[in-house]
Amino acid sequence: MGIVVSLILIAVGAILTWAITDTSDGVNLTAVGVILMCVGLVGLVLTMMFWQSWFGSGMWRRTAYVEGAAPAPRRGRRVVVEEEDDLGPPAGPPL
User: Fold this and answer.
1) 4-19: buried (b, 16+ CB within 10 Å) or exposed (e) per residue?
2) Is-above-0.70 flag for pTM?
3) What is the CA angle 67-71-76, rounded to 5?
4) Nearest to 45 by CA among 36, 54, 33, 35
5) Where are the domains of the chain?
6) Cβ 45 vs Cβ 7: under 8 Å
7) Cα within 13 Å of Cα(90), Cβ side
């Protein structure tokens, strides 16, 4: 569930709770609205907890500097560049 879905659930729940007055016997719209607002709030909190940039990069990860040691490998996409061997002098202009 993302931020947008959570906010939509909260908004629909608030509308059902406070804006609609219905006296039906089958469904209690106030209870449905409160349930939707709670689900949206829980989804919003979980989304914020798992969103890495919300807490900054230092909260979940520690980095230690050791003098003279090799740098730690970076996670993520790795780019490999292959270079050709020297094949001799460059070719001349085409004839």
Assistant:
1) eebeebbeebeebbee
2) no
3) 155
4) 54
5) 3-52
6) no
7) 3
Contact (Cβ atoms closer than 8 angstroms) between residue 13 and residue 34: yes
Q: Tell me how far apart the alpha carbons of residues 8 and 47 are, in angstroms, rounded to a whole number.
A: 14
| 10-24 tens-digit pLDDT | 999 999 999 988 888
If 0-12 CB within 10 Å is exposed, 13-18 middle and 19+ buried, where does residue 68 land? exposed
C-alpha distances in Å from residue 51, one per residue of 21, 27, 62: 37, 36, 17
Q: Give the H/E segment covering residue 6.
A: helix 3-14
